[in-house]
Amino acid sequence: MTAPGFAFDCMLKYTKVKLSRLMDYDMLLLFEKSIRGGICQSTKRYVKANIPNIEGLDFNSNEPITWITYLDCVNLYGKSMLTELPFKDFEWIDDLDIDVTKIADDSKVGYILEVDIEYPKHLHKNHNDFPFLPFNECPPNSKVKKLLTTLSSKKNYVVHYKNLKQAIANGIVVTKIHRAIRFSQSKWMASYIKLCTSMRVLAKNEFEKDFWKLLINSVFGKCMENVRARTSIKLVSSEKKARKLMAKTSFKDRTIYSKNLMAIHQHKETIKFDKAIYVGFAILDVSKTFMYDFHYNVMKKRYGTKISSLYSDTDSLIYAIQTTNFFDDLKNSLLPYFDTSNYPKDHCCFSEIHKNQPGFFKDEMKSIIIKEFVSLRPKLYAYKTVDGTEKKKAKGVKKYIIKNHMQFNNYMDILNAFINHRTLKDEQTHRKMNFIQSNKHVVHSKTMNKLVLSANDDKRYIMDDRINTLAYGHYKLNGLL
């Protein structure tokens, strides 16, 4: 038994919920079409903090006072699991005259809709950092689909009613509803999430904290399991049997181990769609409403044009904020939305009221001030703090390479070369990386010269200064793409 399977069974036993199976294939396809992961994007590629009377910072009185904050939502998916989730009574709706703005968030009936939407031009400036309704599509001049936040109009967009309701409240216009599914929903998973959360608060070490977090996240993962990706493998020792299996339409690949042994990889001839992907869809979509709500109704409402998003990744937001003192703002008006239990106990903003409670935001820096931030592209960024610490992130790169062979200045060199249109040498962009690989059940080590630093990012349009970006669909890009 795997951890996700164990966690899912624990949840079913504790909640006693009976989850319906989707018996309509078109419904299944619509839910599959609606699956979108977390938003990850680099919005502004470099910022330097400018704060007076801070040791380690060079203050420029001619520039506005600027703070860099790295905020992380505590257990974002756990927060979604505390809300109303679908579980039964799935049916197509004949009457598509649906006004989602009049449906309460805690309604006993929920909806998934396929709609056409328009993004009005007057919203582009204010929404550029974090546009609503992300969509899986290929960026211009690319053949690879990515989750993009764009300001474009969209056709046949599949969305949870809460996300659509939020988008409409912020000015997006629905031009047509193509299809809709109605379902019963309730907070049937909330008791399980509250149990795991309370046990995590009581945890006395990192292992216990991670264990209870795993029991929450694994349930979500089990709801997202893609049964289409499963493969059947058969070992054969005769040429006749191998040829027979390879002649089937389900044949996928083969691995030859020796003269007398071969593994035949096959697609599943029969797929059993027995996973509650509608739960995973709801968790993913509703989680995005919390991030948008925090960005627009908390941070943008508090700071207006004085705040800009630098980087976002699923449950985290990095901001540049023009304010005299962020900690004063936090203490006076933002504390109801934050978990500051990771601050020093003598800090003016320290509080354990929201400790490890899902949906509240933590300062990832634990009150330490970020000095500089650079982002080359999604999953590739670095920052320095006033105490001299450097933090680097590079997806797909071994930790020892990041720790010992990559510095903040390397990221800056790449960005500066990109700004000045300079050609880079391989030793600047590549690192030799050792790893252990298993091939045909034979373990061996390999060395690879891997590209680890690059400023090419096609998820947003990079402006002429090579620092700021625009979301695709922005009216300023008309005729440029």
From TrEMBL:
InterPro entries: DNA/RNA_pol_sf, DNA_pol_palm_dom_sf. Signal peptide: none annotated. Gene3D superfamilies: Palm domain of DNA polymerase. It comes from the Eukaryota. One of its GO terms (biological process) is DNA biosynthetic process. Transmembrane segments: none annotated. PANTHER family: PROTEIN CBG23764, RHO TERMINATION FACTOR N-TERMINAL DOMAIN-CONTAINING PROTEIN. This is DNA-directed DNA polymerase. It comes from Macrosiphum euphorbiae (potato aphid).
